[in-house]
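In this section we walk through a basic example: taking a raw amino acid sequence and producing a predicted 3D structure, encoded as discrete structure tokens. The instruction is simple. Fold the sequence below.
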Amino acid sequence: MYTATVILAAVLGVAVIAMGAAYLIAPTASAKGFGLPEWPDGALAAWLNIKGIRDLAMGAAILVLLATSGPHAMGWYLLVSAIVPIGDAVIVLRHGGSKLLALAMHGATAAVVAAVAVVLLLAG
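The resulting token sequence is shown next.
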């Protein structure tokens, strides 16, 4: 179970990097899957690039921590970083976005990240 969780943590890191890259390469296309009903005109790409950089940095941090500090430090990082998808879900719900996407995508992401964190903390 421990090895599978470490592998899952690495997969999470790569997935977050991929999401960040998507928001940098094709921000408008990526925005449609976030869950908000509409996006502001003008500065849309800049705001989505901010999300892309955030995701790239978080994904890279997952991989760096896993490689240099081990699974226990990774567990703490993942537990704290679960705040981000929870915040994303709240933002989507607060601004009239899709409840399904808020809960199914952002809420499920937070649950998976927190679950991996707990396993890493208990095993480490």
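Looking at the output, two observations stand out. The helical segments are 2-25, 27-31, 44-68, 71-81, 83-94, 99-123. The radius of gyration is 15 Å. In the next section we compare this with other chains.
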